[in-house]
Design goal:
By secondary structure, the protein is α+β, with helices and mostly antiparallel strands. About 35% of the residues lie in helices and about 30% in strands. The strands form 3 sheets. It has a 4-stranded antiparallel beta sheet with strand order 1-10-4-7.
């Protein structure tokens, strides 16, 4: 795909929404494309995460191991989904396994590439910081609603 296609993809990823094309060009130019065939794993639960992936085409099943030793599907995701966004900021562990359900293409965004964008565009750093904080607060609210079930 062309650089402009990658910029268009990044512009629909919620974390990068409202960031202008010139700034997204840096990420699109430095990102790596990867193709997966049906059934191929992109990454495994528990592995160290050094990058995020934006789904460019296709569909991924996100699964995780259960306490009883089984596997549960937690989501099926497609174009525009960003997986492991916190891995662009610091070393984290993959919380699930991502497996291609059909032929799938992803864009790999490494931590150094993301940090370079934040360093070159401080206004983007502030926007991304706000979006990540908003995402974390929404997650905390969802978990808070579940708390009564465990008391």
């Amino acid at each position: 795909m062309a650089l402009n296609d990658d910029i268009a993809l990044l512009s629909i990823v919620p974390l990068f929404a409202d960031i202008d094309d010139e700034k997204l060009r840096l990420v699109a130019f430095g990102a790596e494309r990867r193709r997966l065939v049906r059934g191929q794993q992109l990454f495994r639960e528990g592995a160290p995460a050094d990058c995020a992936y934006a789904v460019a085409a296709g569909r991924l099943a996100l699964t995780r191991a259960t306490a009883s030793g089984g596997i549960e599907t937690i989501a099926n995701v497609g174009r525009g989904t960003l997986l492991s966004e916190l891995a662009m900021i610091s070393l984290v562990e993959r919380k699930f396994t991502a497996t291609a359900e059909v032929e799938t293409e992803v864009i790999r965004i490494t931590r150094p590439l993301f940090h370079r964008m934040l360093e070159e565009y401080p206004d983007v750093a502030a926007l991304v910081d706000k979006r990540i904080r908003d995402n974390l607060n929404a997650m905390i609210r969802r978990v808070g609603k579940l708390a009564p079930r465990f008391l």
